Input
Amino acid sequence: MYKVILLLLPAICISNLSQAQLPDSLKTHIDSAFHFMQRSLYSKRVNWDAEKTAAYAAAATVANKEALFPIIANVYKKLDDHHGWFEQYNDKIRLPWKDSRQPTEAIKKEWAKGPKVAAFMIGNIAYLRIPGMHVYNQQQIDYCANWLADSVQSLAAKKPKGWIIDLRLNTGGNIVPMMSGIASFFPEGILSYYLDRNDKAVSEAVIKNKVYVQEDTIKANLKKALPDLSKQKVAVLIGRSTGSSGEGVAYNFMNRKNTRLFGENSAGVANATEGFLFNDQQSYFLLTTSQLGNKNKKPAPETLKPHVQVPVNDNFETPANDLTVKEALKWLK
Output
């Protein structure tokens, strides 16, 4: 017992000494960073007491808050969060998506054209391509939601036998305009939840009168009511570049009846993030704070696997010749 006490004393003394020598500005900066990082979905991966003690000790030799970046970044890396990032002043750390597959040349070619909703018929099947929607003010959200909803309405008027929803170019962004534009594909009632690290629901999404509602609030304003498409047969296409909110849309379809997913595994960031500013808005965390859950609060896997795996042969210019589209058409017909 005495040996243990003797071994611990230097560490305790060093910790107290480090804190005592730290200027208040540096200590407050470290405390703020730790406060936000502990809100991460992955916070259980880190020994916070030990890391803060180490951070205080390392900070004793730095001159200013800018120099704290590598100390905080080292702790951030231990969260192993591949969906967010940390930045302050001129420094930034962002871990790459876990999936090492690179976008195909066909995907990169389409991205270079800018985001586009593609909507047309392939025979008697409706084809709808939904891009990522990185929009966050209300005007942009409403615009994108109606852009998508208008395409749905136009295709629905042609009485298709089935639908292909192509999410292979969708890297994410804001799920609100996406889900608002296609809300009528889903039955009325609870659609999904966001769950914290203890699988406790922190918010819910609902379909009410064919409108997508989050936290009891309509988040996008549609100009026209959507037709009821909740019983339509739907094939959803996913792939290596289907990420973040794109995966969220795919997961909602995965839990829908009369639906199958085709393609290859998604990007592996099927979760939700939150942003946190501090240090007079000079420091910023984007952190993964919640996971997706179905209407029964069952957590979603971070990587979605399609019902039908299809070798990559993307052809966005002529979708009827695309191998994944062909597989979807076989099932729909």
